[in-house]
Write a structure and sequence with these properties.
This protein folds into 2 domains: 2-133 and 327-338, NAD(P)-binding Rossmann-like Domain (Rossmann fold), CATH 3.40.50; 138-322, Dihydrodipicolinate Reductase, domain 2, CATH 3.30.360.10. 29% of the residues lie in helices and 23% in strands. The chain contains 8 helices and 14 strands. The protein has a 6-stranded parallel sheet with strand order 5-2-1-6-7-8, sandwiched between helices. A 6-stranded mixed sheet has the order 10-9-11-14-13-12. The protein has a two-stranded antiparallel sheet with strand order 3-4. Helix 4 (136-149) runs parallel beside helix 6 (216-229). The structure holds 5'-O-monophosphoryladenylyl(2'->5')adenylyl(2'->5')adenosine and trans-cyclohexane-1,4-dicarboxylic acid (L14). The site of trans-cyclohexane-1,4-dicarboxylic acid (L14) has 10 residues, from helix 6.
Length: 340
């Protein structure tokens, strides 16, 4: 298969959906991390062709994405939605490129590794041309869970999310700004990207409803966690809520272990973990907050305490910038795993 060709030290990288909230962050992240690309191609729909996007000190001109766009490309970072990823998968693979896909299109496919570098980087090599970037809420949860799982098996996780508007894309972020202004000016609110008003509100509904009245976002947190942690016995119960925050998802997490894990042991494990920052000093009102962590790369953990209602339980609060670690940064980290 063509994708088995070795990766050059200076790959040609395409960013598909480059004009979106995640795509722009991908360009920024590639630049900031000094990714050794020979060339970067910014691809989007015909609507955006010719637009210029900032990259390092210069600019990239957006090209319309067509099946021919991938000729000569080694790595294609996709964030243009699940249907676009499905439409272009064949073109990417037959061009000999590896697709790193941020959409939900292929995550649960058996031949597609679902990678969070802090958790299961070693599985990236098992790809057949596509590597999936997990759901943003799942990524920050497993980054927090893995150091604990290495202390004791996890029996059950109960999580409630507080998800930022930008999770639904750049236009959804604009909608939060616009509705906030409309609300303060006493104007009628324009509701388009969310099912209801998001300004001054919380919406317990992300992605579509499933047959059992849970949402697909909640389901993703269950099955993706089990796949990334390679343990189907971890029970996960999720409730996903949109809140009027621009960037950074927050999560309240309750974990039940098979054997005791103290607060001190958990904190020690997080302090030693890559990509985690423990921000937990109640006396000094120190805990992570989404409004203050925009543009950061790490997963922040605070409010760590024992859950007195069960035998071996911990409660904590996790915040990460879902456009960075939840999407663009994690995708670039996967690309870095492919470098020779
Ligand atoms: O299906 P999924 O996996 O659930 O993902 C759905 C969407 O969620 C976002 C991301 O939206 C994704 O498309 N997303 C996914 N994971 C995320 C995460 N972890 C996440 N968001 C946050 N955190 P997005 O808005 O960030 O990016 C969309 C990008 O996809 C490009 N695109 C669309 N169709 C394409 C395509 N690219 C190539 N070929 C196609 N056929 C899209 O580019 C954008 O970059 P664009 O050129 O279509 O749009 C650029 C600007 O045009 C405006 N616009 C958008 N829609 C319309 C529009 N104008 C007129 N009419 C429209 N219908 C906007 O201003 C947009 O910024
Ligand atoms: O599955 O906050 O990657 O709207 C990413 C954005 C799910 C929804 C995914 C959000 C989507 C999420």
């Amino acid at each position: 298969m063509s994708w088995l060709k070795s990766m050059p030290a200076n790959p040609v990288v395409a960013v598909a959906g480059a004009t979106g909230a995640v795509g722009r962050e991908m360009l920024l992240t590639l630049g900031q991390r000094g990714f050794p690309a020979a060339q970067i191609k910014a691809l989007a729909s015909a609507r955006s062709a010719g637009r210029k996007l900032p990259f390092l000190e210069g600019e990239l001109v957006v090209e319309e994405m067509t099946p021919e766009s991938f000729s000569g490309v080694d790595i294609a970072l996709f964030s243009a939605g699940a249907s676009i990823s499905k439409q272009f998968r064949e073109a990417v693979i037959s061009a000999g490129a590896v697709m790193i896909d941020n959409s939900s299109a292929f995550r649960m496919d058996a031949d597609v590794p679902l990678i969070v570098s802090e958790v299961n980087a070693h599985e990236a090599v098992n790809h057949s041309g596509v590597i999936a970037n997990p759901n943003c809420s799942t990524i920050q949860m497993v980054v927090a869970l893995k150091p604990l799982y290495d202390l004791a098996p996890i029996r059950r996780v109960v999580v409630s999310t507080y998800q930022a508007a930008s999770g639904a894309g750049a236009a959804a972020m604009d909608e939060l700004y616009n509705q906030t202004r409309q609300f303060l000016d006493g104007e009628p609110l324009t509701v388009d990207k969310f099912a209801h008003q998001i300004a001054f509100n919380c919406i317990p509904h992300i992605d579509v409803f499933l047959d059992d009245d849970s949402t697909k976002e909640e389901w993703k947190m269950v099955v993706e966690t089990q796949k990334i942690m390679a343990d189907d016995s971890i029970a996960v119960s999720a409730t996903c809520v949109r809140v009027p925050v621009l960037r950074c998802h927050a999560e309240s997490i309750n974990v039940e272990f098979a054997s005791p894990v103290s607060v001190a042991e958990a904190k020690e494990a997080w302090l030693a973990a890559a990509g985690v920052i423990l921000m937990d000093d109640p006396e000094n009102k120190l805990y992570p907050m989404p409004g203050l962590l925009s543009g950061t790369d790490d997963t922040y953990i605070g409010r760590v305490r024992k859950d007195h209602s069960v035998e071996n339980g911990l409660n904590f609060w996790v915040v990460a910038d879902q456009l960075r670690k939840g999407a663009a940064l994690n995708a670039v980290q996967i690309a870095e795993l492919l470098l020779p």
